[in-house]
Amino acid sequence: MSPVKRAVSPSKFRLGDVLSVAGSGFRTRKMRTALSALGITIGIAALVSILGLSESSRAELKAQIAALGTNLLTLEPGGGFGGGDGVLPAETVGKVARIGPVEQVADAISLDLAVLRNDFVNENETGGIAALAVDLDLLDTLNGNIAAGRWHDQASAAVPTVVLGAVSAERLGVEQVSQGMQILIGGSWFSVIGVLEPFPLAPDLDRSAIVGKPIAATEFDNELNPSVLYIRTAPDQLDQVRSVLPSTADPESPEEVDVSRPSELLTAEEEIEDTTARLFLGLGVVSLLVGGIGIANVMVIAVIERRNEIGLRRALGATRSHVMRQFLAESLLLSALGGLCGVGLGAAVTAVYASSQGWQIVLPPAAMVGGFFAALAIGVGAGLYPAMRAARLAPTEALRAA
Amino acid sequence: MTAALELRNVVKQYPGNPPVTALSGVSLAISEGELAAIVGPSGSGKSTMLHVMGTLDRPTSGEVYVDGNEVSGFTDRRLSAVRSRLIGFVFQQFFLIDGLTAVDNVGNGLLYSGIAKRERQLRAAEALLRVGLGHRLLHLPNQLSGGERQRVAIARALVHRPAIVLADEPTGNLDSRSSHAILELLRGLNSDGTTMVVITHDRELANALPRQIAFRDGVIEHDSAGRSASALLP
Ligand SMILES: Nc1ncnc2c1ncn2[C@@H]1O[C@H](COP(=O)(O)OP(=O)(O)OP(=O)(O)O)[C@@H](O)[C@H]1O
Ligand SMILES: [Mg+2]
Asked: Which ipTM did the prediction report?
């Protein structure tokens, strides 16, 4: 007798069921789930926040530079070989001003005098504050701002009054500009009439005490040779100006003239920040790998612990690939969970830190999406081997009492 | 009568040194609607035969027919399909999933049939009613007694309306009162038409079933039906 044969339709495992089976284990193993996702969370958070912060600070820097203007050049006497006396001929300003695309020129004259809070302070404790004599248009040329008090005017430039750079004001303990506040410059008393905001493009000015040229000439009998020129050019002709400046300033030995573009120095500083960022990026990658190993470890343990469950599922009709899918999905969900938390945490860190620095908050979408997908990739990598082991387990072996 | 299950000259050897022959030429037919007990001493090959019948393991040689399908040449995928559609298993250790309610555990019996979750839950609830656990639908396994757990497992084995239910020591972990209740349940389900093969150590339980097949050293020592599979051969 030949038995009656009925067609047997294949086993199925719907995608929604795969996910809910994979996810159901997390509810019963909350602690383990959280801990095993933690490594990924930390790794992704590190990556996202580092990328976010470096984007934010770069955006901030760009905004700063744009606000300060990238068309500023400085011209200084090259230190020469022996350090040099560091001054330019007085007529340099006029020569530079005659270059067509130059819009503004201002000079600063280094007075080489001690700047002191009062008589009792030792001259050696001046704290590196330089006395400078300048023209009134310096502030305008540098787009500088007053933090307190006021800038020089025609009258104040001719009398013993001083405006302090941001760092100088701090070092001299001048927080507010009040009537009768005086400091000693080269042994003479000067009234403080203003404090400047920092100049990111001309940090030397932050450490200076600025007086008018007329009072400098009468009080200190100085030669009044500029030690630095600040030059604003037409933005599109900056390179041309830059190339002719040395020969204009010193036709005999143009190589002894230093021309630089402060906004480029700021950009270079950013490069330095980039290496620190790269270091942290490396740390993020390492903790991501450690997180992946953590997940792989948890998955290997899960496969061993749940041998009977695997056997049962096989008895209920799961194919090898269904078992594989379940464990891969578990590992993927773990890493996705870790990845999502990491992206969230990284974004939060970026937002909090950037706003504490007063930066604009930039969350690079590539870092967030990339971070999440990196987590998923790690999940697949970590889950593959355990899932394959689960799938290869023979049903009878899996069902044997542990 | 059609055979729900048939073994022809099945040999099962486990590799080793020396290899263990767990089944040495077993022929057996279980008709549709039958309820058979498998008895025999420990190590006689009962579980091995159940695994081979249930397509959880392949015979070393011989033929296995499940609901008319000769399965010994099937791929692993097709064997899984046979289990998901035609066979229900009940184990001594229940093998319920801890975190799932009774309904969801029973619903797992339909998980690999491609049936939507709501439908699975409806049918699971029905199956739980059938085994007398209508009042325990949302309980977790650790909130159930041993007897109740085995009822849940039986409901899971039945929920996809299999051609045959294979039970390996279903009362092995239960006290005599629960065992008795499980026996009554199995008999009731059988009288509704489900074909069943039950391995048991319990002589009394075996004798309460319509047919007893006794194993010893990998061969059928005695079959109360008085016929062997060879009698069915042409
Ligand atoms: N995976 C295996 N590898 C090697 N030998 C095995 C394996 N499984 C079972 N055996 C051997 O096959 C023989 C039959 O085992 P089986 O589990 O079928 O016995 P059983 O009748 O179910 O016994 P029990 O009543 O104790 O459950 C035994 O000698 C056993 O040691
Ligand atoms: Mg056994």
From this structure: 0.94
